[in-house]
Amino acid sequence: MRQLLLLPLLAAALITPASAVAQTTGPTGVVPTPATRVGKLTGPGSINATDTRWELKATDLGILWDNGSGRILSAFGDTYGNGWTGPGAGTGDPATLDWRCNTLLRSGDRNLADGITFDSAAEDRPGHAKQILGCKKVDRDEHTVIPTAGIAVGNRQYLHYMSVNHWGPAGTWFTNHSGIAYSDDDGQTWTKSTTAVWPNTSAWNNKFQMNAFVRQGSYVYLVGTPNGRYGNAHLARVPAAQVLTKSAYRYWNGRTWSSREADVVPIAIGPISEVSVQWNEHLGRWLMMYLDEQRAAVVLRSASDLTRPWSGEQVVAKGTDFPALYGTYMHPWSSGPDLYFTMSQWDPYNVFLMHTRLSSDGQNTNLVSDPGFEGQPGTTVSAPWQLNGRGGIDQNIGQAHSGANNSFVRESNGWHQIQQNVAVRPHHRYRLSAWIRTSDPTTKGVLGVRTPQGKVLAQRETGTLTAYTKVSVEVEVGANPVVQLYAGTFGAGHDVWLQLDDVALEEIR
Known about the structure:
By secondary structure, this protein is mostly beta strands. It has one helix and 33 strands. It has one helix at residues 50-53; strands at residues 13-17, 30-32, 36-40, 61-66, 72-76, 103-107, 120-121, 123-125, 128-129, 144-153, 156-167, 173-183, 191-199, 210-216, 219-225, 231-239, 250-252, 257-258, 268-280, 285-292, 297-303, 314-318, 325-330, 338-345, 350-360, 386-388, 391-395, 405-423, 429-438, 444-450, 456-461, 469-476, 482-507. The longest helix has 4 residues, at 50-53. The chain is globular and about 80 Å long. 50% of the residues are buried.
């Protein structure tokens, strides 16, 4: 790593004393309030009594979309009847478990403040929600088939699904393929397309195994992630009239739409899973909501365009408040600053309606997640940041530039740094800034941008900064769709340290 500091400065940089600049880096774009629970939607004790009305005692996901006729369709994952005992999926008496790989309920309820009332189900007999997509139920062949997104185009409903080969450790699973099914009778019967299929690779890393649907103009867009919960998000689109024509899909390569799926680049850095995307008219921005498995939190990003850089993550709901949370899907009838979404919890393995209220901070979009380290749960550096060397988090001990927390590196020998990977638009210019304080005597502190492989694109040596000082560097990212931000210092044979806070990366051209 030492040789990186010997490269020439490749971009303009500046250092501003704290006394000359009062503002701090604020939240990024859209600011959500902490989510609150509106009501339990499924299972015993729910507002819908699904266990007695449709023999649906336990289920998850609750993917929501407008059917185009003034109704909401909601697709669920593995569903169990009255033999389910919990917690989690698949527990109970096999003879009475009544396992269905997927189910569907319908609603016309527009008053979301008191929950979602479901008024009908896709049934195979009165009072029994049926399995809508076939699955083999054979482990390491096709264990289950799980819906991941739905959308209406005209009178036809499209449902994206993943064929799960087997489950792995927590947060990991492995898919055979993903695909699209369609229904022309409001979700009562479904046909799996034989053409709109994305086979997984032998390495289990195809980028479109779990997708979100969104409509913009004459196109349907896919925001795709690999199987499991640790991948990046990618973007594809297709003319709305050709949703089932695989060859009509085009993949965003950072500059244009390519017919080659292999050309696709990340639009947001993971871990991202169980994602939903929608346009928010109130704020005039796109919203992306998903589970960040490493942070054990539901998070929100925003962007002015689907292809533009997405903001850093804003935490909406924490696992410490809602244990084993996952599977969040925004309600398309949310309005104004009120955002409603479904959320699952592994125990009691059911679906809840949640609410958050959105506002805009009026600032340029910051692409950095947890820019002020306020989301760090302890004194050890954790996602979305990474520590290379020795360092940690100063947590609520009066050392921060703003807020309660800051990060630091400290050691007497070698190179030590804090870093984060960020998706950017190739061939655009960005400004990285951070508030930095260092030990005295002189510390060889550095703030920079490089490729994830280690090629420096721009960096700035700080020298000694005895008070928090804003350090900035501008960078042209070239053809790179992902860059790594870093700040660190060299030990010089004696104890040295660098403190870091309020980091921002903004697109300026």
